[in-house]
Amino acid sequence: MKISLQTLFALSPLAVLVVAISACDEDITGPFEGSTVNLEISHVVGTADLVVDDVIRYANVAGNNYSVKDLRYYVSNFTVHFDDGSTYGSSAAHFVDARASRSETHSIQLENVPDGTVVGISMVYGLDAETNVDGALPNTLDTADMEWPPPMGGGYHYMKLEGRWEDSGNPGSLLGYTTHTGARFMPSMGDTYRHHHFINVYMDLVDTAIDHGESPEEGYEIRITYDVNDWYEDPVTYDFEALPQQMVMPLLDVQEQLMVNGPSCFSASFATV
Ligand SMILES: [Cu+2]
Q1: How many beta carbons lie within 10 A of that of residue 32, not counting itself?
Q2: Cα 173 to ligand 1 centroid, rounded to whole Å
Q3: What is the pTM of this model?
Q4: Which of 23, 75, 133, 205 is the most exposed place for a label (fewest CB within 10 A)?
């Protein structure tokens, strides 16, 4: 859906929202100029680096052998947590494509982070309710590809994870899977409200001081490791063979299962570079 800016301003609550989103880098300002923290995401499957292609390289805890030929997603609302309980963050949403050829999407900068002792970082995997609105994200090819069908509620996919898997009952035969997550609102299926399936993720960090004053030339980096295999375990075992279909967008129980498994996909460590 395309809306002109003028139309948006006519719908003023929505306009305020969109302006807030497009100005996310400015939404936390002040006279203090803190440190820039680079968030660097690396994608792995267990102990192996993720290779995005159509080769069956991986196995999950249910015993499904699978490939990952596509992994694209949004992360948003990065927030740094300090030892005194204070937080600092940005509501910005970031598109990530796990392919090595799109590694520029694997680095996210958090600007003006104040001094303090950092004990954790949190984020939303996907988009929160305010951001997951048609037209809210910049109009790019990546964005267009992530749109969620209007008959299923509109907005955007949080994740497109696709590949093929080996059917154990039929060795050698490969079937496709499309693990797409997002918010569902389908009155025809009985929905009386929008089912938001975004995931709140909190990653512990070993206490690390950010000190802008003493080492302004130093860059701080938080390395986030995203293990794709953890979608399939902890706490719920996810088995391709047990699913009624691999296109899981309309399946509330599968979306909810992915929601509870998602947080364990992520861990973080601090580095000074
Ligand atoms: Cu989809």
Answers
A1: 9
A2: 24
A3: 0.86
A4: 23
Q: Do the domain assignments include residue 195? A: yes
CA of 148 to the centre of ligand 1 (A): 6
Does 14 reside within a domain?
no
Question: Ligand 1 centre from 122 Cα, in Å?
Answer: 26
pLDDT in tens, the chain (273 residues): 444 444 433 444 443 343 344 434 444 444 567 889 999 999 999 999 999 999 999 999 999 999 999 999 999 999 999 999 999 999 999 999 999 999 999 999 999 999 999 999 999 999 999 999 999 999 999 999 999 999 999 999 999 999 999 988 888 899 999 999 999 999 999 999 999 999 999 999 998 888 876 555 568 999 999 999 999 999 999 999 999 999 999 999 999 999 999 999 999 999 877
Q: 24 alpha carbon to ligand 1 midpoint, in Å?
A: 27
137 CA distance to ligand 1 centroid (A)? 17
Amino acid in position 233: E
Count of structural domains, the chain:
1
Q: What secondary structure does DSSP assign to 154-196, as a single string?
A: -SB-SEEEEEEEE-TTSTT-EEEEEEEE--B--GGGT-SS-B-
120 occurs within a structural domain: yes
How far away, in angstroms, is 254 Cα from ligand 1 center?
13
Q: Which residues, 6+ apart, have CB-to-CB distance to 103 below 8 Å?
A: none
30 CA distance to ligand 1 middle (Å): 40
Domain that residue 165 falls in: 31-272
